[in-house]
Amino acid sequence: MPIKAFIASVLMLLVLTAAPAVAGPSLVFDARSGDVLLAHKAGDAWHPASLTKLMTVYVTFRAVQAGKMSLKQKIKMTKQAAKQPPSKLGFKPGSQFSVDFAIRALMVRSANDVAVALGQAVSGGSEQRFVNMMNANAKRLGMTATHFVNPHGLHDPAQITTARDMGILAASLIQEFPQFRSYFSQTHLKIGKHKLRNRNGLIGRMKGADGMKTGFVCASGFNLVASATRNGRQLVAVVLGHKAAAPRTRFAELLLEAAFASKRRYIGGNGRIAALSNRVGAPANMRKRVCHKRGVKLARIKEMSGWGVTLGKYRGPLTAEAMLDGQTLLTRSLIEGGKAGVMRVPYTRNYVPTIWSIRQETALNLCSQLKSRSNHCKVVPPSKFTEMARLSKKEAAERAARKARKAKKKRNKKAKKKRRKSKQAKRKPNTAKQTRKPVEQKSIKVERKSKRIERQ
Length: 456
Description:
CATH architecture of the largest domain: 3-Layer(aba) Sandwich
Distance between the termini: 130 Å
Number of strands: 13
Strand content: 15-25%
CATH class of the largest domain: Alpha Beta
Largest sheet: 5 strands, antiparallel
Oligomer: single chain
Number of helices: 12
């Protein structure tokens, strides 16, 4: 296959005959050149959550660079700012802190109260005026589908962006303000004796990770803009709409590692971020899948057949699902017509992303490619699926037997308790007689004593 066709195929959505990938919008690009390395639903409307704070600090950086304020300048926690819901630092109204501290509080702990206080300070006292500044900058940068309603990202149906637009904002922060890049890679925020850890799970985990911002509300799911630098090459990943923080982190890491391992560039037309198109439409609402029911529909082992591959093992089904989405997104050109899902290994708590119903040659080629990027991959022959199906059936039978024994034990316990109550009920009359006898004897003694007294 020609290189150009291969790369173009890597940037299209994989269609499997099993359930489609549930990954939200994703984008990977070179921070300095703006070249897109991977784009998946990058123009779909989405709620930004706390990724909004990237624009909050962008507007602040412009004010500092223009000399309108300094990093050492003190700002005040207003009553309006102090009323904001968590995540927050909880400073009392009237408390003062520097602009420098405020920026670090936003990037490390995503403090909503500090975001409002900072916005008011930059705009001269008005939160709405600051929001107008945010939208004006978004328009100037070419973030054509983005609209901000507040400076912190707490949910508002009208607050919308796309992965493409967030990519433009991230690139602008990196290119326009290299002197401020350390704000995005802070490992913790120190307040007195307390150290509050950065919520970006890639910092300290992935080699070269150096920023930028996490975001979460129920409607958006777990979002992340993450950057990493290796050998002078800085890449940025934008991932939106994951079900939990850990899967979001692992998914972003997978995409960045794959991009670093490959020097190919997207050459399907103009490969710059700005050339990607935003789509018209309402943003997805992830509330039910994220804050109500976050489960994963596991694949049925007895239905697996043909040759397949497993892509590592994970302690949680959500992480396994995210890794499956990422790998199928990166390697779909090799596995068309296959089926994909997450299975639980019998007699363990391990969850395994699995692709099956593919040819042996396809399985070998897929694992060869993944291992070249230091990814986990194991070829599974049809006989192995048969053996696992047998173990799964055996485990299910044992589980049913344990459940039956437990139910029987519960019934026996209930029956025993009922018999004990019945025996106690039969003994009640005898107990009553025994309790009356001492009373009768006491009354006889009293009567005899009174008669003796009368005789005297």
